[in-house]
Amino acid sequence: MAVLFCSCDERRVFDQYQSIGSAWHKDSIISFHLPVLDSTKKYDVFINLRANNNYPYNNLFLIVTLEKPNGYTKVDTLEYEMAAPDGTLLGEGFTDLKESKLFYKEDVRFRGKYTVNIKQAVRESGKVPGVTELQGITDIGIRIEKKE
Questions:
Q1: Residue 45 pLDDT > 50, yes or no?
Q2: Span 23-42, mean pLDDT?
Q3: Integer distance in angstroms from the first to the last C-alpha of the chain?
Q4: Which run of H or of E encompasses 3?
Q5: DSSP-assigned letter for residue 129
Q6: In the prediction, which pLDDT does 137 show?
Q7: pLDDT tens for each residue of 115-138
Q8: Strand order in the sheet with 73-81
Q9: 2-11 long-range CB contacts below 8 Å, 24 or more apart?
Q10: What beta strand segments (E) does 2-147 contain?
Q11: Checking CA distances to 15, which of 36, 77, 110, 138 falls within 20 to 30 Å?
């Protein structure tokens, strides 16, 4: 079993989480400073998160910025499905805490030091202002894997 677990993680080159706390404030930005990676290789980038049954919505909206060493910043607004139609939280885990590996970018070449910033942008249906204190997300992370 240990060999199977280790062999599945050979592609990992970076995997880091940050705790959100009791609620994710709409103005709180979670930042990850990526290591310098081999610029001749391609990588896949994922957003990892841990959520519990206090998460009250079916979807999650994130604003993710990728700051490049040359000063250029790429901004993406992302939507992820968080719950099944019956309201059951999606993800891996045996308790009420579920872990999700969400696709962010594919076939990326990193040239230098990058920073990834993540901000929640959840809004209730029919309302313009964002959710001020998002409940149920406990940790957010970035994972980078070598492309095969």
A1: yes
A2: 95
A3: 23
A4: helix 2-8
A5: S
A6: 95
A7: 999 999 998 877 778 889 999 999
A8: 30-33, 115-120, 59-67, 73-81
A9: 11/145, 11/146, 11/148
A10: 12-19, 24-25, 30-33, 43-51, 59-67, 73-81, 98-108, 115-120, 133-134, 137-146
A11: 77
Q: Which residues pair with 79 in a beta bridge?
A: 61
The contacts of residue 118 (CB under 8 Å, 6+ apart) are 29, 30, 31, 32, 47, 62, 63, 64, 140
Return d(Cα 142, Cα 118) in angstroms, integer.
10
Cα Rg of the chain, angstroms: 16
Q: Which two tokens stand for residue 143?
A: 């994972």
Distance CA 97, CA 95 (A): 5
Q: Phi/psi of residue 91, each to 5°?
A: 125, 175
